[in-house]
Amino acid sequence: MGTKKLGAMRGEVHPLDRARLARSCGHAHLPRTPAHEGYRYYDLGGDTPAFYLRRFRLGEQTSAVRLVAPVELSSGLDAERGAPALVTIELSVGPRVIRWDEIADPVLLPGESALLARAALEAVVGLELFAAGECPLCPAPMRALAA
Q1: Which domain holds residue 50?
Q2: Chain-centre distance for alpha carbon 5
Q3: What DSSP designation does 71 have?
Q4: CA–CA distance, 70 with 52 (Å, rounded to integer)
Q5: Which of 8, 39, 65, 83 is the most exposed place for a label (fewest CB within 10 A)?
Q6: Entry pTM
Q7: What's the distance, Cα to Cα, between the start and end of the chain in Å?
Q8: Residue 145: what are its φ and ψ, rounded to 5°?
């Protein structure tokens, strides 16, 4: 990541992005080309759902965006690697997952990098997020409440 990009991350989250995050339920479309976007695919087998992971590192510190349990658009079943899918988004700073309702303004613990948290947040903002009332993965009652 270049210094120009790092400098752009020092400002506030754009109000339109903040509004998109507030309306979202935490689900999104999987990027069309996840590897090109920096995501690696992991399928650990067993009961652990497959996921895509994009890491950000600064020295010994890390943050990450994890796109969990891809659901294939065509069938609604577990998605094969690279298939068009819907995913659940998780953002972590170090080993800690940030709650969705705090994602735009995470409370960081001492020693956690605000720059890394912001880099991961920028990756989330770049996803095609679902609004809570329009998400096919959310239960119908949640969609009705959002209407």
Answers
A1: 3-146
A2: 19
A3: E
A4: 9
A5: 8
A6: 0.85
A7: 40
A8: -65, -35
Interval 8-32 mean pLDDT: 86
Query: How big is the CA angle at 100 (ends 15 and 50), to the nearest 5 degrees?
Result: 125
The 10s digit of each residue's pLDDT in 53-71 is 999 999 999 999 999 999 9
Structural tokens at position 117: 């948290």
Q: How many CB atoms lie within 10 A of CB 67?
A: 28
Structural domain count of the chain: 1
What's the average model confidence in pLDDT over 35-63? 94
Q: 44 phi and psi, to 5 degrees?
A: -85, -5
Contact 112, 94 (CB under 8 A): yes
Cα gap 40→54, rounded to integer Å: 6
Report the C-alpha gap between 125 and 53 in whole angstroms.
15
51-56: long-range contacts, CB 8 A cutoff, minimum separation 24: 51/87, 52/87, 54/120, 54/123, 56/1, 56/116, 56/119, 56/120, 56/123
